[in-house]
Amino acid sequence: MKHNIILADDHQLFLEGVIRLIAQEKDFHVLYYAHNGKLVMNYLDQHLAEQVDLVITDISMPDVDGITLNNYIKEKRPEISTLVVSMHTDANMIDALIQNNVDGFLSKNADSEELLAAVKTILKGGKYFSEAVKQDYLKSVFNKEKETLEMLTSREKDVLKLIAEEYTTQEIADKLFLSKHTIESYRKNLILKLKVRNLAGLTRYAVKLGLLS
């Protein structure tokens, strides 16, 4: 049984190259291609009964971009897998796609063999993120964590660490020779500063920032 694939990219040469590449694989079939995400969304709306296994999309496109297209597919047609192939490896974009269950992300600098490997991995039910994308993402996450640590005072780090170690407000106050009211103020300020909702969020941040041994 052939896997039906849809392509969305506004770069004609890249689109033609991917079509030729996929045509060489006997198990793959390019069902439809378009130069923007809006046309793909319209096609999917009009062909609800048609089997679509994978949508390969760029991020920057006119009318509807790849992030919006991925979100639409995961909400309206969650049985369809998605692979983003883009020159943009911005961590915020990657994060937005991961939050919305993208199945893979590949840099356009990748060669044809890696593109086929990504497609095959995803169609088998796996996830595929190229090494370049993972490195850019991890570097950004590390820099954000470093900035957050630098934003916290030494005392705030002490309080955050003890909160994560499940000490009560009174116990933290005793350990740091501060009043219970002062610790409560630190806790409220940490919640605001780190943009979390509760103590569980503070604990996750403490782990993420490497404050726990």
From TrEMBL:
<dbReference type="InterPro" id="IPR011006">
    <property type="entry name" value="CheY-like_superfamily"/>
</dbReference>
<dbReference type="Pfam" id="PF00072">
    <property type="entry name" value="Response_reg"/>
</dbReference>
<keyword id="KW-0238">DNA-binding</keyword>
<dbReference type="InterPro" id="IPR000792">
    <property type="entry name" value="Tscrpt_reg_LuxR_C"/>
</dbReference>
<feature type="domain" description="HTH luxR-type">
    <location>
        <begin position="145"/>
        <end position="210"/>
    </location>
</feature>
<dbReference type="GO" id="GO:0003677">
    <property type="term" value="F:DNA binding"/>
</dbReference>
<keyword id="KW-0804">Transcription</keyword>
<protein>
    <submittedName>
        <fullName>DNA-binding response regulator, NarL/FixJ family, contains REC and HTH domains</fullName>
    </submittedName>
</protein>
<dbReference type="GO" id="GO:0006355">
    <property type="term" value="P:regulation of DNA-templated transcription"/>
</dbReference>
<keyword id="KW-0805">Transcription regulation</keyword>
<feature type="modified residue" description="4-aspartylphosphate">
    <location>
        <position position="58"/>
    </location>
</feature>
<dbReference type="InterPro" id="IPR039420">
    <property type="entry name" value="WalR-like"/>
</dbReference>
<dbReference type="InterPro" id="IPR058245">
    <property type="entry name" value="NreC/VraR/RcsB-like_REC"/>
</dbReference>
<feature type="domain" description="Response regulatory">
    <location>
        <begin position="4"/>
        <end position="123"/>
    </location>
</feature>
<dbReference type="InterPro" id="IPR016032">
    <property type="entry name" value="Sig_transdc_resp-reg_C-effctor"/>
</dbReference>
<dbReference type="Pfam" id="PF00196">
    <property type="entry name" value="GerE"/>
</dbReference>
<dbReference type="InterPro" id="IPR001789">
    <property type="entry name" value="Sig_transdc_resp-reg_receiver"/>
</dbReference>
<dbReference type="GO" id="GO:0000160">
    <property type="term" value="P:phosphorelay signal transduction system"/>
</dbReference>
<keyword id="KW-0597">Phosphoprotein</keyword>
